[in-house]
Amino acid sequence: xxxxxxDEYFMNMAKLVATRSTCIRRQxxxxxxxxxxVLSTGYNGAPKGSRHCDELGCIREILDVPSxxxxxxxxxxxxxxxxxxxxxxxxxxxxDASIYTTTYPCSMCAKIIINAGITEIxxxxxxxxxxxxxxxxxxxxxxxxxxx
Length: 148
Description:
By secondary structure, the chain is of the alpha/beta class. It has six helices and five strands, in the order αββαααβαβαβ.
């Protein structure tokens, strides 16, 4: 049995976390890691105590909103946001950490990741958000596509 690399290990965790998502368009998982230790996880879904999109339907689908636009219409909290919020909720600093996410972060998540002090993003699938790419480049964020 071959031992997985750190990237493989943490990205597989992000994929597993994504299976908890209640989004009917895209299941996304995120894992925040520092010094090879998991600090926090998150998946996309409605805020705590709110009804989920898999119960109500997706307003973005109903309105035929293109991927990468009009994020404010979605009732879900993104995986990256939930991972940062979970860390904050439990008083865990994510400064100088890495985030493994199954999908390239949108511009809203990019801003949160930057301001949280995370220094590296490892992502799986791409996502069409030019502003996100611009912000991450300006910030000096290390961004790597998995597999590297």
